[in-house]
Amino acid sequence: MVFQFEHVGLDHGPGGKWDPIPLSVAALKENTVRWQAALADVGWNSLYWNNHDQPRAVSRFGNDTEYRELSAKLLGTVLHLQRGTPYVYQGEELGMTNATFLAPDDFRDIESVNEFIDATTRRGLRPDVVLAAMGRASRDNARTPMQWDAGPQAGFTTGTPWLPANPNHVTINAADQVGRPDSVFEHYRQLIVLRHTEPAVVHGDFTMLLADHPTLFCYTRVFEGTELLVLANMSDTAVTATGPFGGWAAAEVLVPNYPDGFDGPDGDLVSLRPWEAAVLRRRVGVRAGTVDSPSALIRPRRARS
Question: Per the confidence metrics, is the pTM higher than 0.85?
Fold first, then answer.
């Protein structure tokens, strides 16, 4: 199993991690294809967005305000359907966001503390500019207490934690999401169930589609007569695109991230709402011993408008 760190540097500008730039979806796809192909026959990918050294993925690569839940689910879908072993970092399955740091003394991470001193003294940058960059990129974003419930300190401790709980724990917490069908948590559970019940998720060949599209992240997984199509729109704008989707009109819809489902391709056209993602499945011939996904993962199609 190989951990690579290229994709978590794709939003770094010339000044490194403290100079963040918007993520290029095309660059992310190029990186994904390269590692999926390079390890296809000789190794195994570790699949991750978050860890203790990275800011929260939904704040970094998604939209953590208007589309927080949808983009958190989309990021999970895009990652978990790839070939490799997915990692879920604490709070990712809730769509936990970056924290709110208002002053230099709010930070504990030594890298962040040193950056503020160096940037404001040696490099002469304005403190507010430095703080804004640190707020987006600091490792402390991933180190705030796990948000278990809406109570004091997010239910993490009765004492004083190393970092304060994110104020949004009153609305983003495990107690609210466990068992709520449309929650980020339950979406992650469904993705994990799909991986355990559909061999194509683990063993299937990987092929990227529409590699140059600026916002769509689409790919197929194919294994012994089962084909999966992953569709995702990584943007705040609805998108309609033409692609090799003509044979998917009657495919099953699995784990869509919008509560009202997904209506599937219309011929060669696919239309996706902001931060919409879905997995489609079709069978060419089912091998002996294949376990069908639980019916809870199969959703009715959304009526076309």
Answer: yes
